[in-house]
Amino acid sequence: MLAGKVAAITGAASGIGEAVARLFVKEGARVVLGDIQHDKLRRLADELGSDRAMAQECDVSQEADLKQLADAAVSTYGSLGVWCSNAGCYHREGVTPLDGLIENLDTADFDRQVAVNLRGVALGTKHAARAMKRGGRGGCIINTTSVAGLVVNCANSGDPVLVSAAYSASKHGIVALTKLGACELAPYRIRVNAVAPGYTATPMLAKTIGLQHLSKEELEAELAKVSIMPGVALRAEDIANGMLYLASDMGRCVNGHTLVIDNGLVAGVAGYVPGLETDTA
Fold first, then answer.
1. Cα–Cα distance between 236 and 223 in angstroms, integer?
2. Structural domains of the chain in order of their starting residue, each with its CATH number
3. Whole-angstrom Cα distance, residue 270 to residue 108?
4. pLDDT digit string, tens, across residues 17-30
5. For FRET with 239, which of 24, 135, 200, 245 sits at 20 to 30 Å CA-CA?
6. Which residues are catalytic?
């Protein structure tokens, strides 16, 4: 489905980004992998094969790193056809979800999340679009937002994500950037879309809800217990499948859209995963 395409992926060393990298290579793409987790990134690139993948250390809060990632795709593989802004962050060490409430805002933490989650997407789009326009063959930009970019929840909900002002505001901003990018870049046949994952079994979620001691399989089992679709936990691979659709010719007329992959979480049902808060003690 992606034969002949070149993709750059931020946040590629683990979680959703890793799943996207593996799937894209399986489907014929060559990939440039960006992340700050250098050792994990290098191991993944080696596993995928030097002829199909290369690692490029990339801190998305630094514009120069994003430009270098886009440039690396062109200089190494000759073009850039797909850009996945997937890197993201939640609260830094020592900052609790309660510190994310508006009345308790930790300004350094707020600035960090906006720099990574929102500004990183904006500047990634900037440099990906420039590379794609120079290539003259169009392209596809995919941004990872979140269900927290679509809905919020009240402070007494017990939810550790949807009450975070920094995280939710930054993820809402991605939805707006996606629409703006789609309108601006459509004349150049560059599509801009987003995916909004629900609670997905990734290292980032595990850390957020205090279950980082669990294996991937154990985390999936815990999420399956409280899923609104009984027994069905969202996996990183499920999100990667959505990105594959958007990146491939199957999604060639999809532009400015946010694809929600959440088991139905935001479709008028409870805005958080009940029960998880009881497992974080």
1. 13
2. 6-201+235-276 (3.40.50.720)
3. 31
4. 999 999 999 999 99
5. 135
6. 167
